[in-house]
């Protein structure tokens, strides 16, 4: 099997693990508060990370130069995870995941003021179409549950902000980024326990811990995928997660997606793929013609 095919396979494995993780969170959040999920999942994930941190050295991993930016990224990550779990408590898994798929479009829009990047009219048009897809998914003129829907949108914005933070801090290394997210999320969840604690049984405790372990495995699979294959090949497969979520919704919760979710998902996916394609075109053009000016359709 070629590296490209192995990369695609690892991306599908990673996306499958993330979808299972999200479905497990939806199952558990009906019995336990979001803070409990954050605390226990981080505890198990931290246990896996500790040997790697000790081998690298605590100072090497955590003594970072831009600590405030790391803390802002952790705050964004905590917010997006908490919003996701809270939203799926009331909305179908596929619907919330579809809304979260708009995060790369929000990232594109925010990259102009926050990263100083130039976005041409074609990508702006795709962003507008993608946002229209989010509105279609929310279906404000039909069966619209405003609070969890808006929480999902807010979480998507937080997710995009955490991605921007990752771009700023990627030179610090994957172990540092994952460790800050894991320990930061755990501390935030732990801080809520005096108010929201509910004692899980042995099975629930293991399932809560499995949230952290499956998420770590998913990140490892996706990172390996990007090492084996170019992003332009494997990144589009992330949208398969919506199909997985639809199947899980139907099998476990007997919930089929509405026409508005299907139409909105089509708009979001098409917009995301176009934005990703244009980014590759712009990067290729800049590399091939360094020093020249790109046209107005970047």
Structure description:
- With 298 residues, the protein is an all-alpha fold.
- Helix content is 79%, strand content 0%.
- The chain has helices at residues 3-28, 34-56, 58-62, 67-88, 93-100, 103-115, 121-138, 146-169, 174-196, 202-228, 231-234, 240-252, 259-288.
- Helix 1 (3-28) packs parallel to helix 12, helix 2 (34-56) packs across helix 10 (202-228) and helix 4 (67-88) packs antiparallel against helix 8.
- The two termini are 36 Å apart.
- Residues 292-298 have low confidence and may be disordered.
In short:
The chain has 298 residues and is mainly α.
Overall pLDDT confidence: 90
| H/E element sequence | HHHHHHHHHHHHH
What class do helices, strands and sheet pairing give?
mainly alpha
User: Uncertain regions: pLDDT < 50 for 5+ in a row?
Assistant: 292-298
Most strands sheet: none
- Give a count of the beta strands, DSSP E runs of length 2 or more: 0
Q: Assembly state here?
A: single chain
Q: How many DSSP helices? A: 13
Rg, Å, rounded: 19 Å
Helical content class? over 70%
Which band does the percent of strand residues land in?
under 5%
Overall shape: globular
Distance N terminus to C terminus? Answer: 36 Å
List keywords for this structure.
single chain, disordered C terminus, 0% strand, 298 residues, mainly alpha
